Amino acid sequence: MAKEQTDRTTLDLFAEERRPGRPKTSPLSRDEQLRINKRNQLKRDKVNGLRRVELKLNEDAVAILNQLADEKNMSRSELIEEMLMSQLAQVYEPSNR
Question: Where are the coiled-coil regions (predicted)?
Answer without folding.
Answer: none
